Amino acid sequence: MNRLMGMSRAMRVLTMIWWSCGLLAALPAQAEEVAGPAHKVVYQCNKGGEADYKSLLFSVSAMKEKYGDDIDIVVVCHGPGIHLLAKHPKRYVPEDVQEKMSYLDTFGVKFHACGNTMKGYGWHEEDMLDFAEVVEIGADDLMLLQEQGYTYLSW
Q1: Which of 47, 132, 138, 141 has its CB 3.0 to 4.6 Å from that of 128, i.e. a possible disulfide?
Q2: d(CA 93, CA 89)
Q3: Which residue has the higher pLDDT, 36 or 35?
């Protein structure tokens, strides 16, 4: 500030404007740093077997354990994979699998259910597990998430 005192009034104003612009230019970069996790992954679950469900959740758990809060994970269930999110699935889903999903939900893992597939089974939002988010079309959800920078993993 002592340097400013020796300058003309006009020069002090220009210097203050210049500093302000520099500070304002730095703000968006700082906002981006705290905008969210460094990693984003979307898993596609379109298979309906017990082994498929367990290996999917094993992978999701491993990723969440490795990256903690530095990863955003979404599991999109459609086709035969939709049974994973149903309260009363028409295919066998072990109770421990549903418990594991509920546990992962508490750590921020999101589970999306394809509304299009649900219609085929005559299911509605209330037929899905409480933590499941219904999306209109699972394939569309996969596309949109990838456009937002999510890495696609097929399971």
Answers
A1: 132
A2: 7
A3: 36
